[in-house]
Description:
Layout: H1 36-41, E1 51-52, H2 54-61, H3 65-73, E2 80-82, E3 88-92, H4 93-107, H5 112-121, H6 128-174
Amino acid sequence: MNPALPPKYGAGSGQARYNALDVDVNGKLPGRPALWAPAFSTHLPNPTMRTYTIAELAREFDITARAIRFYEDQGLISPSREGVGGRNRVYTARDRTHLKLTLRGKRLGLTLSEIKSIVDMYESPKDTVAQMNRFLGVLAHQRETLEQQREDIEMALAEITAHEEECRRMLAEQGAGAPLPAP
């Protein structure tokens, strides 16, 4: 943390962690001379900007806080830290969106590295045509993988059906009691 910055300023977050109640009537930040106020006045968060706790996001997306911390460790989301020693994670709408995209990617069967490259790709609005083409390529590859898996599953199910039929036939020939009903 930069010692020149006030203690509530999130290291590397680019946003002050003060709210409207932290600034006194003279525009002064608590415990700082008035010269701090103008430097941070443009960085004060919008009081209407929604932030989330880890528990709120876990509840909303029906995942564990541990899963959210894992995605944080993987660099998919990066909350700011508040409180003594930065113990409290503060998630912005952007973090929430990244988490939502991560979970959508997992549901599509993408790897975490594929999800990270897609999320990172949308961080810079440089060449959206290239970004969309890259995303289409990832989706096409995933479609191929899933179609192959479906084919493999169908073959395995057909093989199971054949084995079940053979076992039932053998049991019926031996008169060894009633075979289990077919599914």
